[in-house]
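User: quick one
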Amino acid sequence: MELVGGEVHYTFVIQKTMVLLLCVGLAWKMIVYMCNLLKIEKEPIRVLVTGAAGNIGYAIAPMIARGVMLGPDQPMILHLLDIEPASKSLEAVKMELQDSAFPLLHGVIATTNVNEACKDVNIAVLIGGYARKEGMERKDVMSKNAAIYKAQASALERYASDDCKVLVVANPANTNALVLKEFAPSIPEENITCLTRLDHNRAQARLAEKLGVPVSSVKNVIVWGNHSSTQYPDTSHATVSTKTGDQPAKELLVADQKWLKNEFITEVQQRGAEIIRARKQSSALSAASAACDHIHDWFLGTPKGNWVSMGVCSDGSYGIPPGLVYSFPVICEKGSWKIVQGLSIDEFSREKMDDSARELAEEKALAYSCLNV
Amino acid sequence: MAKEPVRVLVTGAAGQIGYALVPMIARGIMLGADQPVILHMLDIPPAAEALNGVKMELIDAAFPLLKGVVATTDAVEGCTGVNVAVMVGGFPRKEGMERKDVMSKNVSIYKSQAAALEKHAAPNCKVLVVANPANTNALILKEFAPSIPEKNITCLTRLDHNRALGQISERLSVPVSDVKNYPDVNHAKVQTSSGEKPVRELVKNDEWLNGEFITTVQQRGAAIIKARKLSSALSAASSACDHIRDWVLGTPEGTFVSMGVYSDGSYNVPSGLIYSFPVTCRNGEWSIVQGLPIDEVSRKKMDLTAEELKEEKDLAYSCLS
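Assistant: Done. Structure below.
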């Protein structure tokens, strides 16, 4: 091409550059398209739900099947277990799951056989347990549940996948988890947890309500201890996101310190009973949702700068005796949880944390006495 | 920047379909993972305490997308500003009740529901009627809310659609997401490793397809009641979410779904009825899939159900007089 003056040279360069960019752009689109064609779907994960014919089971099954628990691109196979008297209801749950045509749900096994239910499961959500009935002594409830969780432990140990993550929901959750751990020694103890996320979510919501902010603006509340009336919802490290960044919640509630140390705590502790009074049944929707949150964060990681509450095997952190399943603040990364260390504990908190630990030690002693009989 | 919240009304919210449906809405299953919502939950005064219990649980679940909950027994408060209305509330048939009695009760419920929605809902509110008799309740709603565009009033047949997909996927042992385009098996296809194949070809059993398959789907609701002692809630709630989601966000390319919509005379179905058709959805609007060949067997069945809907319409109007 003939060069006539400097301007023509520049036009030439610009034209060539634009053609080059166009080619690169088209090539990129082709590469992305081909990659999408080759996108291999993930292998399904097996999720066990015990007590699946009950109210919490009925609420949690569609949540799992929609990807709320494991993410929107993770297929799963549901294993639903319940006792023989519930087998018809259990079959109906399986039918309804089929009727919903969930794209992520690659199979449903509905069974009353615990071994079949536990086979190769990667996640186990243990909702089944013996509910306290009127007139029952605490020892009776403990006795029945200790026996159930001892049997559950053997089945999981023998048949579940080696990496199985366990979440105990049925009450007394912490002690059921402890019994499970004791009788399934080959399951790594870090894989056995219990649900206190419901209390954590309740605490977060109550605090957000008091502050008049969206619930997602509040983070890092903690629930310490036992999922019982001795649980300690702790706001001393909670923050609220504001226009000027994260502010400590207790600074925003300087005039309500008394409320934080009294009514707030009792409201969260007794919320379960309040729900029962209104609904005439215990919480199912919120328990199921919290169980999904617990597994989701454990599996996929907590958001940066956020921690959550999980009932985990104590390693002695914060002066809590090892050998108990105790609720701590944790962060999760790459499929593992880690207790958040170094948080300052004031006298008020210390007392409450120790109270709950004491109750758990008593429950442990009671459970063991039931098992020796 | 976060989207403005959408107001979603659920009537009969204290019941079991409501209890299954509200966490699904609050998790973004109905309107998408980035769409904040404000839930309006309406029920009758005897259910006020239970309704409040549901509100408490929704708060306890700390759903990031849920920007507010209005729990009320006042229809005006329930309907104010709503962009989506899922009508689950209705009078269920009790033992010993005549069809006329059930129809009569539901017709008056939907007549007053219509007035409240027309006056207080947001313009362009999308309505999904779930409570049975769904098609006729929706028709009554349409008749008594003339300022709501008739294309915005629909009823749920997505549950039956999903049930049919489930039956076919089980019969063929394929994932349910590979089965599509079902208003009936003549048009349904399955994604196989060698491309899309018609269901009839793969099942190779016309007797089953024309007989047992149809009756299984038709009577599935009763089968669930027999096993659970309660009617379907989980699957009904899930299908209601699918119906609204596809309507609002669009159906995937090359797929159609079933919706109960106001007939325009397509496929020789009389206009003036709410009838389930195959539809695609785009930009918040549904349109009936045209041009599907209808064989004799299908024609007979389609006419039969239109007949029944005409009878229900007459019965409903006689109750109102």
